[in-house]
Design brief:
By secondary structure, this protein is α/β, with parallel strands linked by helices. It has helices at 51-58, 81-88, 98-101, 108-118, 127-137, 154-166, 184-201, 212-218, 236-241, 246-255, 284-288; strands at 2-14, 22-35, 40-44, 66-71, 74-75, 91-94, 172-176, 204-209, 221-226, 229-235, 294-296, 299-301.
């Protein structure tokens, strides 16, 4: 369904508004993975690890510097704008903040009906029937149809955003931190909704989160990102039950309320492992050598073994 190979994306930024010299930030550094049809891939990592940039690059909302993005047999980076538009309706994204992703001037009905009409998913006379069906699937009553985003709660707005994403019958759905802005009680409801969608639509999903407790419920496979790189990847059972990388272990401990901090001196000039300054198991070889991603298809890790 989706294959990513050597995907790289950098940004040039200035330290201050008055700086002349630009600093290059590597948001994605030769990221490679694949997602099978009907599979849910969990992408975890701290803020700044490259998760959202990865999502935007897959959808070509950000143009990668290099690499390939193969979706349904086509390399998206080789497509023209018109060709890409055809594939875009098969790929949808749900953003972190449902309020900012919804047009405040449009009713909920129009928000979901618009992509159906634009992509000619259903005849105009059948659009209302299609919208009602989507409302039902995301747990909303017809009474919400004429409401505006500001008249709804955060959880209700996120259900609308999910409904809009489902309106085009996508083959790939990317959820970028879809519950992080919601109350804990509402988070559980939205997670259950994603589980229902996965079963009902047999859809391929990429679920992005910084919380392993959430990812474990919806994912089949997991990749762990840090500094734009994949440090560990594999099946959910292998990664969560037998974490091999110190960073993954730290995320696991944090999800259980166990926090640790390395008190040594941070080293900025590193040509090796990006996690070297924070790693409590670091060795001399880690400073100057980048560990390759090794292992089998069920479990791979980028870490020099003891």
């Amino acid at each position: 369904m989706l294959s990513i190979s050597e995907l790289t994306k950098t940004f040039e930024v200035r330290k201050t508004a008055f700086s002349i010299k630009k600093h290059v930030i590597s948001a994605l550094d030769k990221v490679s993975f694949f997602v099978e049809k009907g599979e849910t891939l969990g992408v975890v990592g701290e803020s700044g690890s490259g998760k959202s940039t990865l999502a935007r690059c897959i959808l070509m909302l950000e143009v990668p510097d290099s690499g390939t993005i193969t979706f349904a047999g086509a390399d998206l980076m080789d497509l023209t704008h018109n060709q890409l538009r055809t594939y875009r309706k098969r790929m949808q994204i749900i953003f972190q903040d449902p309020y900012s992703s919804l047009n405040p001037r449009h009713t909920v009905y129009y928000t979901i009906a618009e992509p159906i009409l634009f992509h000619h998913i259903a005849p105009k006379e059948e659009t209302r029937k299609r919208v009602i069906e989507i409302f039902k699937n995301v747990g909303l009553d017809e009474d919400f149809m004429n409401k505006y985003p500001h008249e709804m709660s955060g959880g209700q707005r996120q259900r609308v955003a999910i409904g809009r994403a489902l309106a085009t019958n996508p083959a790939l759905l990317i959820a970028d931190e879809p519950v992080s802005s919601l109350d804990v009680s509402i988070q559980a409801q939205i997670i259950n909704l994603f589980m229902d969608i996965k079963e009902q639509y047999a859809i391929t999903m990429i679920f992005i989160s910084h919380d392993l407790n959430i990812v474990r419920f919806v994912s089949d496979n997991i990749i762990v990102m840090y500094g734009g790189k994949i440090l560990e990847m594999g099946t959910k059972e292998e990664v969560l039950n037998h974490p091999l990388h110190p960073y993954t272990q730290m995320l696991m401990n944090a999800s259980q309320g166990k926090f640790s901090h390395y008190k040594g001196q941070d080293i900025i000039d590193i040509s090796g492992c990006l996690y070297y300054p924070r790693c409590q198991r670091r060795k001399a070889v880690c400073k100057n050598s980048v560990p390759p991603l090794t292992g089998d298809k069920d479990h791979m890790v980028a870490c020099f073994k003891e």
